[in-house]
Amino acid sequence: MTRFRTVLLVCALLFTASGCELAAPGQTESEEEVTILGTWTGPQETEFKKLLDKLDIPYEYEGTAAQREVLLSQVQAGEPPDIVIMPGLGELAEYAHQERLEKLDDEVYKKSEYGPPWQPSGKGAEDVFWVPLRADLKSIVWHRKGTEPPKSPAPPTSWCMGMGEDGPSGWPGSDWIEDLVLQGSGPKVYEQWVRGELKWTDKPVMDAWNAWGDLLTQGKKGLAARALIADHRGADDDSNGLLFSQKGCSLEHQGSFAPFFYTEDSARDVDFNERAKDVDFTDSADLLPRGPYGVKAHEVTGDFAALFSSSPQAKELLSKLASKEHQQTWADDAGVFSANNKVRSRRGGLESEVVKRLTSEDTPRCLDASDVMPPAVRDVFHEAILLTLTRYSEGRGKGSVKDILADVQRVQENQPKNQFARTDVCSTPQQPPL
After folding, report:
1. Which of 179, 214, 239, 326 is least crowded, fewest Cβ atoms below 10 Å from its Cβ?
2. In which domain, by residue range, is 191 found?
3. Does one domain contain both 271 and 388?
4. Residues 181 and 256 placed together within one structural domain of the fold
5. 307 by DSSP, 3-state: which?
């Protein structure tokens, strides 16, 4: 009988008395893999794994667009991942409220390196349960290099738009609504909306929704119909993104991650400026329908990591991922952006323009609204986007917005108050919109 089988037999005999834990042959407990669940797939997964490989901690990474469903099933089965990485702060807040997340101490999360809105602040935000590993800028519009965008609201025919996604859809449309509320009504109203203190049928949200509707030319050949069937990353047979694959359009309202889709071979080792060599961007405020508004703030989004496990290996891995050293490495090697204020842009060009907006002290930064909302509200928000597009594609969009938003409001009213954001959504107070 081998030594390993002998140990198994002893464990079987002693299990009812004291239990027994085993590592696989040749593997010590300290070498157990840290399990990580994220949303990054394709080129973004490749780049993330390159970073993980440098940390000298065994890991198993799973990337999926159906992260919410996968995580929920794992939690219900009592086998959650050690680390989860997701943009949905509202979802993480639910798990924190259920006491499923580990609090992050100063060894993992150095508060001095993360300012607002990345660092929880305000009443009820004393405990920290997540840390941003990656940041992206929104409230921008991409266009082909060498073409100048208009200086005032762009005509509807200019816009590229697609809702398609491997997982839950509708979020590219919610980005439009969020930006219109933010630029049209300012950060204070935006934050009230995110916190559930503003009704979906109130004027700021209604105005934003109807402004977006101005772009959605009706009928089976209009923008609404095209957006319903188009993938936001571009056509399947074209790796150059929606801006280059959707005929007739010249502007795309998309975040700073868009260049991952604008490169013919986005899996190759190139920096952000190389990926963005054929494009340029401008602030969205003056191009949005019913504008120009003037830039009141920038919407930002992040991928936040949280611990479901008290494993020392998981804690060490997350500490390394969030550290200035490895955040800088990831930014340098993969051309991604960090919320860590110690990370510096080592290149000029568009990369420095994104970093300038992500770190500006002059212009507020506001977290993506649907990311912070309770998951039930976020989901019905996305469904309302798709329903609006469907109504417009059927030629009956105008006049339908109020009923659609009333349905979202009913879902919001059914949410427990403690499910809404308990942190500041925007980085600094702002004067009311002019």
Report:
1. 214
2. 138-298+366-419
3. yes
4. yes
5. strand
Query: Are residue 232 and residue 252 in the same domain, yes or no?
Result: yes
Alpha carbon separation from 64 to 1, 36, 383, 389 (Å, rounded): 43, 11, 20, 26
DSSP label of 65: T
Strand order across the beta sheet in which 279-283 lies? 159-160, 251-253, 140-144, 279-283
Residue 83 in domain:
yes
The answer to whether the beta carbons of residues 275 and 258 sit under 8 Å apart is no
Asked whether residue 352 falls in the same domain as residue 318, the answer is yes
pTM: 0.86
Q: What is the pLDDT along the chain (434 residues), one digit of tens a residue?
A: 433 333 333 334 344 444 444 443 334 455 789 999 999 988 889 999 999 999 999 999 999 988 999 999 999 999 999 999 999 999 999 999 899 999 999 888 888 888 788 876 655 557 889 999 999 999 999 999 988 888 789 988 899 999 987 766 889 999 999 999 999 999 999 999 999 999 999 999 999 999 999 999 766 788 999 999 888 887 765 557 888 877 789 999 999 988 888 866 544 556 777 778 889 999 999 999 999 998 899 999 999 999 999 999 999 999 999 999 999 999 998 889 999 989 988 777 899 999 989 988 788 999 999 999 999 999 999 999 999 999 999 988 888 999 999 999 999 999 987 777 667 899 864 333 33
Residues 230 and 212 in one domain: yes
Phi, psi dihedral angles at 19 (to 5 degrees)? 75, 165
Distance CA 223, CA 121 (A): 40
Residue 93 tokens read as: 């807040």
Is residue 253 domain-shared with residue 345, that is, in the same domain?
no
As to burial, measured by CB atoms within 10 angstroms (0-12 exposed, 13-18 middle, 19+ buried), residue 177 is buried
**Apex 311 CA angle, 93 and 129, nearest 5:** 20
6, part of any domain: no
- Last residue of one domain, picked from the residues 342, 360, 378: 360
Q: What is the CATH number of the domain that holds 121?
A: 3.40.190.10
Centre a 10 Å sphere on the Cβ of residue 45 and count the other Cβ atoms it contains.
17
